[in-house]
Design goal:
The chain is α/β, with parallel strands linked by helices. It folds into two domains: 3-244, Purple Acid Phosphatase, chain A, domain 2 (4-Layer Sandwich), CATH 3.60.21.10; 249-375, no CATH class. Helices cover 30% and strands 23% of the residues. The protein has helices spanning 28-49, 69-81, 101-110, 183-186, 263-270, 291-304, 326-330, 334-348, 354-375, and strands at residues 3-8, 54-57, 86-89, 115-117, 124-125, 130-134, 160-166, 191-195, 201-202, 207-209, 225-231, 239-244, 249-257, 279-290, 310-321. The protein has a six-stranded mixed beta sheet with strand order 4-3-2-1-11-12. Strands 5-6-7-8-10-9 form a six-stranded mixed beta sheet, with no helix packed on it. Helix 1 packs parallel to helix 2 (69-81) and helix 6 (291-304) packs across helix 9 (354-375).
């Protein structure tokens, strides 16, 4: 009596990615938004490939409580096209029942027959062998464990108990709304499908976060996945398979430098060789580099940035090593030399704060780069 389904969450359809700079000659925000819509088709493909008739979306299908009518219609149409699959949509904190009441009314009214909004904490039959126990989020910020009602939800003898919820197993806010990590035992669950955490995170064999099918931050360092889950019967250990669904890779790379190292070559050595168009990359430089090497690093970063969907070079952790001849390259006398000497003194001052010393270092490196560029 194996039962198979896809566990996904946090589609955040309509996210605008305002934190990602939009280049003048590109449309990375549009591409990221389109990839989130495209994840619907990838989830349907995962269901077909793994013999699953159900996709359980554990909250935050939409990024806001008021998505545009076209966004709603297009999402429902994409799910409706996979007519052999039943989609179960749970309200999360971004599209919670209170703030998004009109949204859920539209979904109930206009959704195709294979799309099932679950807005009540009542058991729903998946088939004769399995029951869905949903925990819809009523308010954006809760004051209790959203899975607490599961303990009192009944099911027929021998049915698989599959719960769907949205929230954190760890309470970072002190509000008391953390999900009990042993909820599978207290509610006699065969599987608890969780949403809210955007990275892949197994809590136990039966309690799982799938993460976003399409990532939206640098924190997790891998492409998004969904989970293909097989339950062979009540009490059996779930078989959980990760299925990659993400188009974009958000990743951070460390770049540790030392004085007189070829910084541009060091950067080139850590960059991915292929697939750059679909990579959002943040390079965190640290260590020490001379003024010339820092200038070369900035130029190398600017040269490779257009290859990527998005590229950031972060240099807050990179110290400036000033060689005796560096100031001569800026100017041997006059106003520029005086400015360079002042900045060097401030960068090495023990009376200034670390932040002010860092500002002076950055300004000196920028001055050096400007003079060098003008000379070339």
């Amino acid at each position: 009596m194996s039962f198979r389904f896809i566990h996904a969450s946090d589609l955040h359809l309509g996210r605008r990615f305002a934190n990602i700079p939009q280049p003048e000659d590109g449309n990375i925000r549009g591409r990221l938004m389109e990839a989130r819509h495209g994840a619907i088709a990838k989830l349907a493909a995962a269901a077909r490939d793994h013999g699953a008739a159900h996709v359980l979306l554990a909250g935050d299908t939409f990024d806001t409580a008021t998505p545009s009518p076209s966004l709603i219609r297009q999402a429902l149409a994409a799910m409706g096209e996979a007519s052999e699959i039943t989609w179960w949509l749970l309200p999360g904190n971004h599209d919670n029942l209170n703030d998004a009441e009109p949204l859920w009314e539209v979904l109930r009214r206009d959704a195709p027959a294979n799309v099932r909004p679950v807005i009540e904490a009542q058991p729903q039959a998946l088939d004769a062998t399995a029951v869905l126990l949903p925990c819809p989020v009523a308010f954006r910020a809760g004051a209790s464990d959203p899975t607490a009602p599961l303990v009192g939800m009944e099911s027929a003898e021998g049915q698989l108990r599959i719960a769907l919820a949205h929230g954190g197993v760890t309470d970072f806010t002190g509000a008391g709304d953390a999900i009990a990590p042993d909820r599978d035992r207290s509610a006699r669950l065969d599987y608890l499908a969780l949403g809210d955490w955007h990275g892949r995170l197994p809590i136990s064999d039966r309690v799982q976060y799938c993460g976003c099918p399409e990532q939206d931050r640098f924190k997790h360092g891998r492409r998004g996945v969904c989970l293909a889950v097989t339950l062979d019967g009540p009490g059996a250990t779930p078989q959980v398979t990760e299925v990659e669904t993400g188009t974009f890779l958000w990743t951070e790379l460390p770049l540790t430098l030392h004085p007189r190292q070829d910084a541009a070559a060091a950067l080139d050595a850590i960059l991915p060789e292929s697939g750059r168009r679909d990579v959002l990359l943040r390079v965190n430089a640290s260590g020490w580099a001379g003024l010339a090497d820092q200038s070369d690093l900035e130029r190398a970063a600017a040269a490779c940035a257009p290859d990527f969907a998005h590229f950031e070079l972060v240099t807050e952790g990179l110290g400036t090593q000033v060689d005796p001849g560096d100031l001569d390259e800026i100017d041997r006398a006059g106003a520029l030399r005086l400015a360079a000497e002042t900045l060097q003194q401030e960068a090495q001052s023990e009376t200034l704060s670390q932040q002010d010393r860092r500002v002076a270092e950055d300004a000196l490196a920028r001055l050096y780069a400007y003079v060098r560029e003008a000379a070339q």
